[in-house]
Design a protein that fits this description.
single chain; mainly alpha; two-stranded parallel ribbon; 8 helices; 4 strands; binds adenosine-5'-diphosphate; cytoplasm; transferase; Adenylat_kinase_CS; P-loop_NTPase; nucleotide-binding
């Protein structure tokens, strides 16, 4: 199953110093969200390349959408059913994971800034997807526990959809 990870795509662009990479580096390195127009276009292109919808491929979007503007943009490209997993993980576990990951934007200062945004941004999105009845909240303390719960839900959904 193809995975489109917005953060990884943006960081790769930044490291390769592409045109987009140069535009987004300021935002990534200050822990802010990259402007919606840039991210929306990037994801739309990726989804279209996978011909999602045409041949019915299922795709995992990681870290997208992160606000309502992005959710509406996703509605425009999405041609089939959506399941939204909201992983609610305690801050100390996330911090531990990030420090071990050790990416360029995983310094203490940038991480703190990201947390501040992450805590504010998702609420309207959670409300929006809850109303649409597509939100699944996972309270996980470890990646393995999260993974197993998600796997169970996938198996169940696919068994109904056939
Ligand atoms: N959906 C998005 N909208 C805007 N910016 C994003 C999005 N996803 C990732 N980014 C940018 O890429 C950076 C790294 O994202 P990500 O790898 O998802 O971080 P984390 O793994 O800490 O959640 C973010 O700090 C942000 O600047």
């Amino acid at each position: 199953m193809p995975i489109i990870s917005t953060g990884e795509i943006l960081c790769t662009e930044m490291n390769k110093e592409t045109k987009i990479g140069k535009q987004v580096s300021y935002f990534i390195l200050s822990g802010r969200l990259v402007p919606n127009e840039t991210v929306n276009l990037l994801i739309e292109n990726k989804i279209n390349k996978l011909q999602y919808g045409k041949n019915g491929k299922t795709v995992i979007l990681d870290g997208y959408p992160r606000n309502q503007n992005q959710a509406f943009a996703l509605n425009e490209v999405l041609k089939s059913e959506l399941i939204v997993f909201y992983l609610d993980v305690p801050k100390d576990i996330l911090l531990d994971h990030l420090f071990h990951r050790g990416r360029k934007d995983d310094t203490e200062k940038i991480i703190e800034q990201r947390f501040e945004i992450y805590l504010k941004e998702p609420q309207p999105l959670i409300d929006y997807y809850t109303k649409k009845e597509v939100l699944v909240k996972i309270n996980g303390k470890t990646s393995m526990k999260n993974f197993m719960e998600i796997e169970k839900i996938f198996e169940y959904r696919f068994s109904i959809l056939g």
